[in-house]
Specification:
By secondary structure, this protein is an alpha/beta fold. It is built from 12 helices and 22 strands. The chain folds into 2 domains: 94 residues, Roll (Urease, subunit C, domain 1); 264 residues, TIM Barrel, CATH 3.20.20.140. It is 29% helix and 21% strand. Strand 21 and strand 22 form a beta hairpin. It binds zinc ion. The site of zinc ion has 4 residues, from loops.
């Protein structure tokens, strides 16, 4: 076997912290072969003064959100930044995963690209949020438990990895159709029987409750209003991980071009005015506070950003330092934040047998930083070294 030895660095992950050891990588298998003092390989990379971390994992992104040709620009930028795995929580271009997206994904299973795990299309209430968004049909709209089960099994047979569902208002309309308790239970049970992950889009506590009671095992956002104490206790008892996406709540929104506003129907204008009136600073505060309270109860938090539209703006992707800082603000230690972005993300995505930590037998997805990882998370803005699947793709 051909081996690469990463020497003289310190190692940190969700369970190790600042441990001095060498890492021996089996380059052909793309796996970690040994960890310990004084290792030697066919090739040596001296990482004196650096800390090696597992490749980062963003558990909530949208890879394709527009009617455009798929490209690998964002995946390459993510990989070079140190984010080596992303979970795609719902196609937004109106296409079925089997129409070309999954075939395209096979072409980007390369060390220079971040790996994509995908839910394909979201399973949503017919006419509800994420079935229709604006004029286009994005998710799979279902009206019965049978339809939900068939849609999930079809997508998994096509090659999707998990299930995304959603409860929310579409355009703030109170009459938006919602999934029934029976359908929610069927979605949760089908995912469980197929041993795949299953998470729900939810931003309000009033929809969080039926999702929790319906057995949905993971939430894809932290909700943006205070979660009632009994519901938070129920979530902790059911060990429901939450992918937080805190940085998306108060992110700057580009203003609409005046010509778009001028040609807009009045009800659309009214809806936009309502959206603009939302106090997103308060929402962010409430969501961070929910994260703090859930963390205190032992609830698992996972890093996700809800990054989208990167096909138009691929430079925007990278290490989500703001999300790391908000999780720290929610009371997680620096190591717990790192765990949220590595081992916790791998665990909820059911790939922790090969990703998420620095352990013998795991995939050699490793990054190195020169400055220590502290509460500013500044070091992650300039990752010095990236190895993906045992291949060095960046070395300062
Ligand atoms: Zn999303």
């Amino acid at each position: 076997m051909s081996t690469i030895c990463l020497k003289n660095a310190r190692l940190s992950d969700g369970t190790l912290w600042n441990v001095r050891a060498d890492v021996l990588v089996d380059a052909a298998e793309g796996q970690i072969a040994a960890i310990g003092p004084d290792l030697a390989g066919d090739e040596t990379i001296d990482l004196t003064g650096c800390t090696i971390l597992p490749g980062l994992f963003d558990a909530h992104v949208h890879v394709v959100t527009g009617q455009i040709e798929y490209n690998d620009v964002a995946l390459k930028n993510w990989a070079r930044a140190g984010v080596l795995t992303v979970r795609d929580l719902g196609l937004g271009d109106g296409s079925h995963a089997g129409d070309g997206y999954l075939a395209w994904r096979e072409t980007v299973r390369r060390p220079d690209c971040a790996e994509i795990l995908t839910a394909g299309q979201a399973i949503a209430a017919r006419g509800g949020y994420m079935h229709r968004m604006g004029p286009s049909e994005n998710g799979i709209g279902v009206t019965s438990p049978e339809e939900a089960r068939a849609a999930i099994l079809k997508q998994l047979a096509d090659g999707c990895d998990g299930v995304k569902t959603a409860m929310d208002l579409d355009g703030m309309r109170e009459d938006t159709p919602q999934l029934s308790p029976e359908i929610l239970r069927t979605i949760a049970e089908t995912a469980k029987s197929m041993n795949v992950w299953c998470c729900a889009h939810v931003l309000q506590s009033r929809f969080l409750r039926p999702l929790v009671e319906g057995g949905i095992p993971e939430m894809a956002h932290m909700v943006t209003d205070p979660i009632p104490e009994d519901l938070l206790d129920e979530m902790a008892a059911r060990r429901i991980p939450v992918t937080c996406t805190l940085q998306a709540i108060n992110a700057p929104r580009p203003p609409l071009p005046p010509e778009a506003l001028a040609s807009m129907p009045p009800e659309m204008k009214e809806m936009i005015a309502k959206l603009e009136a939302i106090d997103t600073v308060q929402q962010e505060r409430d969501a961070v506070d929910n994260a703090r309270r859930y963390h205190e109860k032992g609830g698992m938090l996972v890093l996700g950003t809800d990054t989208m539209r990167m096909e138009l703006n691929p430079e925007a992707v990278g290490v989500p330092v703001k999300e790391f800082r908000l999780m720290y603000e929610a009371g997680l230690t620096v190591q717990e934040v790192l765990a949220a972005a590595t081992c916790n993300a791998a665990r909820v995505c059911k790939v922790d047998d090969r990703l998420g930590s620095i352990e013998v037998g795991k995939q050699a997805n490793l990054i190195a930083i020169r400055s220590p990882l502290d509460e500013t998370f500044e070091a992650l803005t300039h990752v010095e070294f990236v190895m993906n699947r045992g291949v060095v793709i960046k070395q300062a």
